[in-house]
Specification:
Largest sheet: 8 strands, antiparallel
Number of helices: 3
Shape: globular
Order of helices and strands: EEEEEEEHEEEEEHHE
Strand content: 35-45%
Oligomer: single chain
Helix content: 10-25%
Length: about 170
Amino acid sequence: MLFRSGGDTASGQPDASGMIDVGAVSFKLPPKWEAQQPGSSMRRAQVSASGSAGPAELVVYFFGPQGAGTAQANIDRWIGQFTTPDGSPISGVKPTASKISTFEVTQVEVAGNYAGAMATPGQPQAPQAGQRLLAAIVVTDGGPYYFKFLGPDATVVEHRAAFADVVASVTSSP
């Protein structure tokens, strides 16, 4: 169990119905996706999805009521972690906004060479070619939750509908 401020707990693991409680919200684990133990305290859930080009990973982050900046600032940062094959910045990416359950949700999709992974301090991260990110920011009264599904382009595309189902399944935790 992960201990969270306010005294509530969330396991980051699916319950009997396949729902994963990450705090103020829960979501449905897609079939064939595998919940893992979160790799850090910032991660509320960590899920792996296998695919033709290798595994992709869904990570759900929560940084408290203040979040990690505005939705647009996060989206701009995420897009900035990608470049075209020639190293140019990605352009023309448009986020979408919607309401799911009672939550405001902003989503974005970006693909290219990804250089946003954590590197050893002082060491630049070598870009990974052919990556794709599907991301959603779910705003709750207690702060935003960040859903980031990242991996090889082909694998993420194979699971695009499953990620959409994850986002559509977001509901208030019991």
